[in-house]
Amino acid sequence: MARSPVWASRPKTRGVVLDVIRAARSISRVELATATGLTGATISEVVRELLGDGLVVEAGRGAPTGGKPRTMVQLNPPARYGVGVQLERNACVIVVVDLAGRPVARTSFHGVSSMPPEQALPLVASRVDALLTTAGVDREKVLGVGLVSYGPQDRGTGVLLTPQPTEEWYDYPVAPRLAESLGLPVLLDNDAAAAAIGEYWMGAVDPHSTYGCFYMATGIGGGVVVAGEVYRGSSSNSAEIGHISIDVNGDECPCGNVGCLENYAGPSALVRQALAMPDLARRLALDPAADDFLTEFARIAAAANAGDPEARELVERSARYLGHAAVTVSVLFDLDAIVLAGQSFAVAGSIYQFVIQQELDRRLFARKAHPVRVVPAVNGSDAAAIGGAILVLQSELILGRSEDGTRPVPAVAVEAP
Fold first, then answer.
1. What is the pLDDT of residue 405?
2. At what angle do helices 343-363 and 309-333 cross, to 10 degrees?
3. Whole-number Å distance between alpha carbons of 353 and 72
4. How crowded is the C-beta side of 212, counted as CA atoms within 13 Å?
5. Strand partners, 211
6. Which of 180-194, 215-229, 255-269 has the lowest average pLDDT?
7. Residue 67: exposed, middle, or buried by beta-carbon count in 10 A (0-12, 13-18, 19+)?
8. What does the angle CA 336 – CA 342 – CA 345 come to, to the nearest 5 degrees?
9. Given strand 27-28, what is the order of strands in its sheet?
10. How far is CA 358 from the centre of its chain?
11. How far apart are CA 211 and CA 177, in angstroms?
12. To 10 degrees, what angle do helices 40-53 and 29-36 make?
């Protein structure tokens, strides 16, 4: 049976106050009233509830302001936890984060993509259970699991709408099945959207800004965040930048479009291009039979970083294609910044960051009005898994639920039975 929500009488007000405390790191009640527009009496009552639930703690006195020093409050990180599970084409990453969004445990393993979901999801559940046990995390403090993967998806029902990694995964209710195995609520979301909101939660970007997140692991995804909320579109499948068409006469993509960015600039594309260059393939010992594109791509990226001219040319060409996409997305959403997240950017990020920034500075329509900064993700290669765990925290503690007990968009979860 799923546990009752941790909030009490005023979920929205509690969520607002808790989010301000989280963002401020340490703040007084007077400052909370100013920041939220709530009355001092309301702030005192909400903070008292949060203290009683153990979600916040008092943290000494603030700097003198001419009167009695104010008592500061801050999050109590070990009060609650979220679990993030990232299902990639080649691997599964599991992280546990505390209430502040800081990772406290991590594991990863291969082989899930080669299994049918009926076999893979119980294995994932067993690894989650083992990680919580090893980390010594009280299961009663775990709010749920953020399951993140590439799209498209039906987040409301927790169903994948892609035949990858195999046809058996198409239209499979991954979130309900994982919730059954774990006995915890499971929220399904896009990996790039999760990475994007994780950057916001960790304070890597201006909380009032509009920014994009380009996510590259084995494929290319994207997310756009406006003032702390992911832009979802009509079916929560927005900003799939890997499927922006960059060649109207290009090859057909499995998604149904033609000339998709991912087929020119993604890791698998670079591996194919490198294998077509015999000297480079031989120098890097690339395996034409390998199905782990991330490992092969990492070899190309390492060679590019070391100054190999052919490898560098491939990575820079990929970066220019991504720069083209960055200009397109920035024009559409008038972005302030673009965050580069995911395993592939973690190994070749400096090249991508430089080239994409160069393209934006040269070609962006709004460049004279304001710059668009390109920055690396603070959460590194685990950005999507960490973001998935943070989405759970945000869903349960910040967004709250409506009077009928359901969560509002953008956070939809499937409860454990």
1. 37
2. 60
3. 39
4. 27
5. 225, 337
6. 215-229
7. exposed
8. 80
9. 27-28, 71-75, 56-61
10. 25
11. 33
12. 120
